[in-house]
Write a structure and sequence with these properties.
Elements: E1 3-5, E2 8-12, E3 15-17, H1 68-77, E4 81-86, H2 93-103, H3 109-122, E5 124-130, H4 132-144, E6 148-153
Antiparallel strand pairs: 1-2, 2-3, 4-5, 4-6
Helix pairs in contact: 2-3
C-alpha cells in the first residue's frame, strides 16, 4: 500500500520515506504548495490492516455549470404555471376535497371546498399556481387519484 502526503511516501504503516528536494522519487517537484493536505496516490497492494480512506471530494462550480444555489434561484424565477381541476361526472364532491387536501401542500378544507365548487359550477378551477415542475407533479398526483386536471402557463392571457 502506498500513500503520500506531499513529498513523503509511506511504504508501510510504520515506514515513511521522506525524499530530499530534487530527489527523483519525490512526488512534488519544486516547492510543495499543498503542505498539510493529504493526497492519495495509490491504495493498491497486499497486506493486512486498514486501507487508505479516500479523500473527500469538494465539488467546485465550473463555468457553465449551475450550483445548487443557482438551481434554487432559477426555480424561483421560472415562469409560474396553473394547475387546473376539471369537473367530471364520476367523483363525489367529498372525494375531490379529500384528494385536493392530500395532494396539494397547505391546502385547507375551506380552500378545497371552494375549488371543488368552482370546478363543479364552472367546469374548471385553478387549484394552485407554482413552478412548472411542481405543477406537473401536482397534476400527475391528481390524475393518479382519478381527478381530471391539466396545467398551463400562468403568465398573460385569460
Amino acid at each position: 500500500m502506498e500513500t503520500a502526503i506531499c513529498g513523503r511516501l509511506r511504504l508501510s504503516p510504520n515506514h515513511v520515506f521522506n525524499p530530499k528536494p530534487g530527489d527523483k522519487n519525490a512526488i512534488c517537484k519544486g516547492s510543495c504548495t499543498n503542505l498539510g493536505i493529504p493526497m492519495a496516490i495509490s491504495a493498491t497492494g497486499s497486506g493486512k490492516g486498514g486501507g487508505l480512506l479516500e479523500r473527500p471530494i469538494i465539488e467546485k462550480t465550473t463555468p457553465g455549470r449551475e450550483s445548487e444555489f443557482d438551481v434554487r434561484k432559477s426555480r424561483k424565477t421560472s415562469p409560474p404555471y396553473r394547475v387546473i381541476l376539471h369537473n367530471d361526472n364520476y367523483n363525489k364532491r367529498e372525494y375531490v376535497v379529500q384528494v385536493l387536501m392530500k395532494v396539494i401542500p397547505g391546502m385547507t378544507l375551506d380552500n378545497a371546498v371552494n375549488i371543488m365548487q368552482e370546478a363543479h359550477h364552472n367546469g374548471l378551477s385553478v387549484v394552485i399556481i407554482c413552478t412548472q415542475a411542481d405543477a406537473e407533479e401536482h397534476c400527475m398526483q391528481l390524475r393518479g387519484n382519478g381527478l381530471l386536471s391539466s396545467i398551463e402557463p400562468a403568465g398573460g392571457g385569460c
